[in-house]
Design brief:
Elements (H helix, E strand, L loop, with lengths): L1 E7 L7 H12 L3 E4 L8 E5 L2 E5 L12 E4 L4 E2 L1 H11 L5 E4 L3 E2 L2 H9 L1 H7 L6 H9 L16 E2 L1 H10 L3 E5 L23 H7 L9 E7 L3 E2 L11 H6 L14 E2 L4 H11 L3 E5 L1 H4 L14 H14 L3 E5 L7 E3 L2
Parallel strand pairs: 1-10, 1-11, 2-5, 2-10, 5-7, 6-8, 7-9, 11-14, 14-15
Antiparallel strand pairs: 3-4, 12-13, 15-16
Helix pairs in contact: 3-5, 9-11
Length: 333
C-alpha cells in the first residue's frame, strides 16, 4: 500500500503528466485521483506517436487498470469532462466527487470580461476564478445537483480512504505549479487556490498521516505562461538559441523560458514536503541524453546538473525524464 502525491515545483508545465503516467505503470495504483483548480491546467502525455492533452481527466488515464477520480476540491466543467471522456475513451473508469463545484457558462463570461483577470493577471479564461468565488460565497452548483453527471458521482474521499485501508496503491495528481499557488506564489499573478501537496491531499479528502511520498517535478529549464515575475527568465532569442520553444496546453500561448532556479526549488521542496525529486527536460541540458533509460547513459554534463539540483532541492533526484515520450525516463527509486 502507498499513497503518493505528484505536484509541480515551478510555475506549471513541468511535465507532471508524463511523470504521473510513468509512475502509474510502475506502481500499478487502483485509483488515480486529481486535485487542483480545474480545467485551467492542461497535462500532456505522449504514448508512442500519440500525444494527448487533458484538462479534467487525470493524466494517469493511460494506465488502464486504475479508476480515475476527480477530487472534492476540483472545479468541474461538464462540457470539458464529457469531451475528454470520449476523446481518451475512458467511459466507465471516470468518477467525480458529488461535492465538486461546477463551472457554468456565466463563469467563463465573467472571467473573460474582467480586465483585471484577463489582461493584468493573464487568466486562462476558463471560468475557474469566478467559479471559486461563487464556491466561497456558497452559491455554487455542486456536481451531485447536475443530472447529466449522475452516472459519474461518488464520494471520492470515502473511496480513496477505503482503498488505502485495503492496502491498495493510490496516486494523487496535482495540477499547475508551486509558483502560482494562491498562498505561496507570486501574488497577485497566481491561480485561484493553493497548488501545494497539502492542498492536493485536502482536495481528495486524504489526511496528512496517510501520505507516503511526495514527488515534486522540476523542469531543467522552467517555463511560465501569462504574466508575473520570473526571476531567471531568458529572452526569446536566448531560449530559441538553446532549441527550446514551447506552447501552453490550454491557452496555446508561447511559454516564457527561464534558467534553473535553485533557490525557488529549495523553497518549493520545503513547502511541498518533497521526498523524491523528478527532473524533466534533461535532454535540453545535454541532447546526448535524449531517450536514455539507464542512469549509466547520462553524460557528465547532465550528471553535474543533477548533482547541483539535488544540492539545491535537498532530496535525491530519482526520476529523470529524457524526452517527451512516456518510456523516455530513468527511474532509480
Amino acid at each position: 500500500m502507498s499513497c503518493t502525491i505528484i505536484v509541480g515545483g515551478f510555475f506549471g508545465d513541468e511535465g507532471k503528466g508524463k511523470i504521473v503516467a510513468h509512475v502509474a505503470h510502475k506502481d500499478k495504483p487502483s485509483i488515480i485521483s486529481r486535485g487542483g483548480v480545474g480545467p485551467n491546467a492542461g497535462h500532456t502525455v505522449k504514448v508512442g506517436e500519440q500525444e494527448y492533452g487533458v484538462r479534467m481527466i487525470p493524466s494517469g488515464f493511460v494506465y488502464p487498470d486504475a479508476r480515475l477520480f476527480i477530487g472534492t476540491g476540483v472545479l468541474v466543467d461538464p462540457r470539458v469532462l464529457k469531451q475528454e471522456i470520449e476523446y481518451v475513451g475512458v467511459e466507465g473508469r471516470v468518477f467525480i466527487d458529488g461535492r465538486c463545484s461546477i463551472i457554468e457558462e456565466q463563469h467563463i463570461e465573467r472571467d473573460r470580461a474582467d480586465d483585471h483577470l484577463s489582461k493584468t493577471i493573464g487568466s486562462t479564461g476558463t471560468g475557474c476564478g469566478p467559479a471559486n468565488v461563487d464556491r466561497v460565497q456558497r452559491v455554487a452548483t455542486q456536481a451531485k445537483d447536475v443530472p447529466e453527471l449522475a452516472q459519474y458521482v461518488i464520494d471520492a474521499a470515502q473511496e480513496v480512504n477505503d482503498a488505502l485501508d485495503r492496502g491498495e496503491t493510490v496516486i494523487l495528481e496535482g495540477t499547475q505549479g508551486f509558483g502560482i499557488s494562491l498562498y505561496f506564489g507570486t501574488y497577485p499573478f497566481v491561480t485561484s487556490k493553493d497548488t501545494s501537496a497539502s492542498q492536493i491531499a485536502a482536495d481528495n479528502g486524504v489526511g496528512p498521516t496517510r501520505i507516503d511520498d511526495v514527488i515534486v517535478v522540476f523542469k531543467a529549464y522552467p517555463t511560465r505562461v501569462g504574466e508575473g515575475p520570473f526571476g531567471t527568465e531568458m529572452t526569446k532569442e536566448e531560449s530559441h538559441a538553446l532549441g527550446i520553444e514551447e506552447f501552453g496546453t490550454v491557452t496555446h500561448r508561447e511559454r516564457r523560458i527561464g534558467g534553473w532556479d535553485g533557490k525557488m526549488a529549495r523553497y518549493s521542496a520545503m513547502i511541498n514536503g518533497c521526498t523524491i525529486a523528478a527532473i524533466t527536460g534533461i535532454d535540453n541540458v545535454d541532447e546526448a541524453c535524449y531517450g536514455a533509460t539507464e542512469y549509466s547513459q547520462l553524460t557528465e554534463k547532465a550528471l553535474a546538473f543533477i548533482r547541483q539540483a539535488e544540492e539545491d532541492i535537498g532530496v535525491p533526484v530519482k526520476l529523470i525524464s529524457t524526452g517527451p515520450e512516456m518510456t523516455q525516463i530513468i527511474d532509480i527509486r
